[in-house]
Amino acid sequence: MNLIDQLAVTYREKFGHTPAHIARAPGRVNLLGEHVDYNDGFVLPAAIDHATYVAFSPTNARHSTLVAVDFNQQASFSPETIPSKTQADSSPLPEWALYPAGVLWTLLEENLPILSMNAVYASNIPRGSGLSSSASVEMAFMIAWQTLGRWTLPPMRRALLGQKAENKYVGVNCGIMDQFASACGVEDNILLLDCRSLEWETASLPKDVAIVIADTTIRRKLTSGEYNKRRAACEEAVRLLKEDLPDIKALRDVSMDEFSHLSAKLSKKVKKRARHVVEEIERSKQALPLLKTGDIQNFGRLMNECHISLRDLYEVSCPELDVMARIAQSLDGCYGARLTGAGFGGCTVNLVALEQAEQFAQALATGYESETGFHPEIYITRASNGAELLK
Ligand code: GLA
């Protein structure tokens, strides 16, 4: 049985009728521009064919009741319980429920009409793997509440509200990339977003190139604070560089030249973090024309450089991600391989010649398992459309 049929069955068992609607919102993989979205940089993600699905119907109850199949748990909340992050019975919301509850919180702040819902949801995006399972939950519930409230917000606006929910309600200081990719994805296309102007365009990969995602199965939690520390280091760098460059607003405004002249005033750690960002923004600028002209060889080289920078300067890799990237880069048909997403575990993204992709995936799995003892999951993925109502 596929995930959607399974959800409908669980919904019927729980609520006694067929769900009125089903929404879907994808995860994402990022090809280049890592840890630059919150520095006003450029990112090149794609929505993927793994997604979160929500089966839902309106209810007259004051509370919305949500069943999370992946956690085998249920939670309920209403506009009255949202500010205290509690449920109908005053117990605290479980962590997974903070994401849909956070979405409701932002929509209430916008004064949008909200109807309560009964919902069952599940995802085939591995959690904590760097593929934006959280953003996909937010974007799926955004579609659900939009459907019931009979209003329509443009996809970018939904993405921004999802980011606000995660920043202000869940407490993770993420940038806009994940919600953007989940909301705005375009089938078979890479998205190119300027995180300052929020202008974006798409570019397709050559037909003979596949995106392969390799999951190390190592999990570290994003909310653990390391992510927020990286972001704080970038802010510290801007504060200090401003003494000489008063017009800068973000690391995006610092050229490589300026950085090498002025970086001596930063502490060793802040200097490493900021250098990654300045160079990665430069790499993503170079990547754009390469992608447009189909120069995947050089695009892949930038991906490999990005991994080294994330490992040595930004320090968000881990031994298993390094093994996965190293083996991939040594295999036939691989243009580039690097960790994707926030890091600290999770997945690598690989660009691979399509006709060698199956062989590549097998050799990578075997090599990784024999070196680390962990059995990886490898997906040959397709870029998919953004969040949508299926029914
Ligand atoms: C997480 C965040 C994004 C982005 C990436 C790193 O996925 O949610 O906003 O910062 O990490 O590029």
Describe this structure in words.
The chain has helices at 3-15, 98-109, 133-149, 155-170, 177-184, 226-241, 256-262, 268-292, 296-312, 319-330, 357-372, and strands at residues 21-30, 42-43, 45-58, 64-68, 73-77, 117-123, 189-194, 200-204, 209-215, 334-339, 347-353, 377-381, 388-389. The chain is an alpha+beta fold. A 6-stranded mixed β-sheet has the order 5-4-6-3-1-13, with helices on both faces. Strands 10-11-9-12 form a 4-stranded antiparallel β-sheet. A hairpin with a 4-residue loop joins strand 4 (64-68) and strand 5 (73-77). It starts with a helix and ends with a strand. The model has no long low-confidence stretch (mean pLDDT 97). Bound molecules: alpha-D-galactopyranose. Alpha-D-galactopyranose is lined by residues 34-35, 37-38, 132, 174-175, 177-178, 341-342.
Cofactors, ions, other ligands: alpha-D-galactopyranose
Distance between the termini: 18 Å
For the report, how would you describe the main beta sheet?
6 strands, mixed
Shape field = globular
Poorly predicted runs are none
Helix/sheet category: alpha+beta
Topology:
Elements: H1 3-15, E1 21-30, E2 42-43, E3 45-58, E4 64-68, E5 73-77, H2 98-109, E6 117-123, H3 133-149, H4 155-170, H5 177-184, E7 189-194, E8 200-204, E9 209-215, H6 226-241, H7 256-262, H8 268-292, H9 296-312, H10 319-330, E10 334-339, E11 347-353, H11 357-372, E12 377-381, E13 388-389
Parallel strand pairs: 4-6
Antiparallel strand pairs: 1-3, 1-13, 2-7, 3-6, 4-5, 7-8, 9-11, 9-12, 10-11
